[in-house]
Structures are given as structure tokens and as C-alpha cells.
Amino acid sequence: MRDRDVGGHPDPGGRNQSAWRGFRARRHARRTARQAGEQWQPGRGSARARTVAMLVAALTVPLLVAGLATHWDTVLALAGTDVEDEPVPREPPERTAQTRVPEPAVDLHQPFAGTPAAGWDDGIGGIDVAEPEAVGSFTAGEVAEATEQVLDTIEAAYLNRRVIAEHDAGPYLATLAPDVRDEIEAELADPNHASGYVTRIAESFELLPAQHKVNGSLAVEPGGPGELAFEASFSVAYAFDTDEPDRLLDPLDIVSLRRIEEQFSVVSGDGFARSSHGVWPEEQESVYYSMSCEALEDGYLAPAFSERRRDAQGAEHDDEYYFDPDEPLTDEDGC
Q: Ranges of Basic residues compositional bias (predicted)?
């Protein structure tokens, strides 16, 4: 997708149809109820402009043709020729023109087709992890075990449908160290705080059965004594259901993106109580793209088609940039 300008003018550089949609994105830092950053949205002003231009053309061309015909009749009359005496033969067309019905832009059976996430892996397998090796005082086996723990936490937070659709925090909390669960459970009671830990969709929407698409990486390095520090950078694309796919103009109308950069600590060893062993979520930042700004203000994810904004800001990059976990998190705000 490219340049979601508010004015909706097509880009002379040949940007694709999503240029007609506008831009919507927002950045989010975990531990504040206040949204710290930016997001984008589409405005369909350009589609309106295109429609107006077509109407003007439809009105102008017949007037122009009528004017030319009247002028030519006058010339023939002055020359002594009666245009009605020489009827113009009209041959029927050899074949009837066929109307081609365009294919719908949205395919609920392949919802990610036509988006940058189309070629991504399904689920947690989309996160690349290096072959485990010894890190500091930790053996390769211990690093592998800690890595699996962090992947379980990521999967529960951002891919588990009970957490996402039913707002059941149980699967997520179960992956964390016991000593941190109560604190985070209290955070999850506030939707704006909860969005810093997990993804939740707005209750009036449903996800399609298609697996969420994931692309990213997870790296590990030594932490403090008895700790391994993990850095995750990844993108998750979610596909929403709709009763009216034929009315939508772009696959991103039903596909919403969350870009996430998150740090985790995995605690182990005799220096800590057993109840402290496990995964501790640390800092996190997110950017959401192609979603409802109104729902996100309340801490929930909803598809872009649920909201048509006339005041959307222009995007600085194309769709691929916002989907790419190797790009820096944008600080743009299209809401």
C-alpha cells in the first residue's frame, strides 16, 4: 500500500490502489494508559474526487457533442443541404458488448492475499530464532529451554484466540513467572493497560479462521546474574470477518497489523525463589496499522472497514514499510 493521502489524489509515480484509502496508525508504549505514539488511516477523499470527475465528464461530453451537431446543421443549411434528406444509415453492431464483472478485492478464504503478509508463516513459526548456544553461564540447553518459554509467552499474548477474542488472560498469565502474575493481572483489568501486554479485539468483531500471519525474530543475550535477556521484534497480521466483503475496496480493509518490539527476562537459578523463576515481561512498544482508531482508543483492535475517517493523515511510507519488522517503529499518528 502506498501513500494514503487525505486528499486522495492518485500518485503519479504509480502507487497502488490503497493510495485511495488514506492512512491510519498509532504507536503505543506499554506501561501508560495514555497512548504514547502514532497510527494511520485512510481517507477516501480520492475516491470521492474520482467520482466527481466522472460525473463532470458525463455532463460535459453530451453538451459538447450537442453543440458540435447544432453548429454543423447550421453550416449544411447555409450550403443548401437539408440534413434530414440524407439519413445516416445505422448498422447494428456485429456483436453485443460484454460486461465484465470485476473480481472482489477481498477474499475471505485467502484474506491475506494482496497484503505484505501474504507470504509470511502462520503463527509462532514466523519468528526466527537462532540455533541455541551457550550464553554467559547458561548452557545451550538452558538457553533453548528459556527461548521456548518466551515463545510460549509471545504466542499466548498475541496469537491465542482465547486471549484475543474472549479476553481470557488465563493462557497468557500461565506462561509467566508466578511472582509477576498478580501484578500483570491487575494491569490487564484496564483495557488501555492490557493492550501493552496482549492483543484484544473489540467485542463486536470476529476473526476469520485463517491463522494469524507472523514475521520477526527473537534474540538472546546475557542479563543479570541468573537471568537471560530476550529482545523480540515482530509483526502480526490479523484477518477479520465481515458480512459484506463485496463492498470492500482493499484487502487491508479486513487485515490489521500490530508491530511489536518487546523485551523479556527469564529468571532461573538458586539465587531466586522458585516462585520468581520464569518469564518476566519488560519494556514493550507497538505500532498498529490499518485499524480502527476509535476502537484502539479504548484499548482494542478492530478492522479498518469499521471506521471511515475524513480527517486521516497522509502516510510517509508504503504498506511494506509498516509491516516490515526490520524497519524502525514509526512515530507517525494517522488517528
A: 23-33
